Amino acid sequence: MVTTDGMLEAYYDCRRRKRRTASAIVYEMNYESNLIALRDRINTRTYHPGKSICFVVTRPRYREVFAASFEDRIVHHYIGLRLEPLFELVFSPRTFNCRKGKGQLYGVKMLEADIKEASNNYTTDCYIMKLDLQGFFMSIDKSMLARMIDKFIVKYYRGSDIDDLRYLCQIVVLHCPEQNCERHSPREMWEHLPANKSLFTNGEGKGVAIGNLFAQLFANFLLNILDWYIEELGIKYHGRYVDDFYCIHTDKKVLLSAVPKIRVKLAELGLSLNPKKFYFQHYTKGVEFTGAIVKPYRKYCCNRVLTNFIAAVRKLNRVRNIDEVNHAVCSINSYLGLLRQSNEYGKRREILGMIAPRIYKWIYIKGHYEVVAIKNKYKQNCITQKRIRDGDY
Question: Is the pTM value of this prediction over 0.90?
Fold first, then answer.
C-alpha cells in the first residue's frame, strides 16, 4: 500500500524546484487533501494521468515537449525516489546524464581524461569515434520498456509497496499523453517536425514524452545495456550523455568493427544509429561532446553556446528596470560558468565587451571577466533594508 508519508516525500521532492510555478501554488493550497486523494486512487488502482501541456521548442532544434500536470509529476518523483538508487547499482559509471554527481561538465572531463590516458599523455596514437542514436526517445517501444522495468522491480525492489510501484510504472510508461493534452504552441509549429519526431504521428505504442522525469530515468535504464555491451567489445574508454556517445581506442580497426555489432545490439531494442552523425578522427583533431570541443591540453565551448551567450548579452542591453537586469544577469552568469571551465578567456572578454555603457549604472564585472554582479544599492536585500530605515514598512 502507498502511504501518506510516501506521498508527502514525493510531493516535497517534486516541489523543490517548482514551488513558484502556478500549478504548484494551486496544488499547495490544499495539498494534504490532494495527496490523500491521490494515495487512495493509487491504492484502489483508479489512478489515471491527467492532462499534459504540449509545446514545440525551437532551440537548438525543433522538438516536441510534454509537461505533465503537477500531480502526475508527484507520481514520477515517487517512482524516481524508489528506483533511482537501485538503478545506480547497475548503471555503468560511464553514463553522465541525469545522475547525481555527474552531468555535462563531468562528461567533458571524463572524455578529456580518457583521451589523455588512451594516448599515453598525448604521446601515442589513439582514435575517437562519436555516434548518435536516430530519433531515440520516439523510437522506444513502450511495451518492451514496461516489461523491462517490471522485471527489474521484481528482481531488485524489496519495499512493501512493490505491487503499487509496478502498477504505477506500467501506467506511466504506457501512457499516451498526446491523447489528452493542451497545445501551447501554434499547430503550424508541428509542421517543422518529421512524422517520426512527434507522438501525434509517430505510430501507436512508440515513443516516450520528452520533458518528463521518468523519460530521462527510464531512457538511461534502457541504454545501460548499450553501455555495458561496449565494454564487452573491448573498448575501455567510452562515455554517453543521453543518446550521444563516444568510443576511444588505439586501434582504429577495433572501433570500426564495433559499429555493426552496436547496430545489431541496438536493433534488439528497436533502436538504430543516426547515419548522418558519425565522427571518426585522430585525437589531435579534437571532438565535440555535450557543448564542448576537447583537444589536447585545451577545450573550448561550441558555437551554439557562444551564440546563446551573445543573445543573453543582447537581452541585457534591452532591459528597462532592475528586475529585468536581475533576470538577464542570471542567464549571463550561467554562460560565464560554462566558459570558465574552458580555455575561453578571450571570448568572455570579447562578448562582455558588447554590454552597452548605460547598463553599467546597474552592474559591474568582477575579476577577470568571471562574473557580472549587481551593484549593492540595486540588490534586493539592500533595497529592503533602505525601505525599513525610511519607514516604508
Answer: no
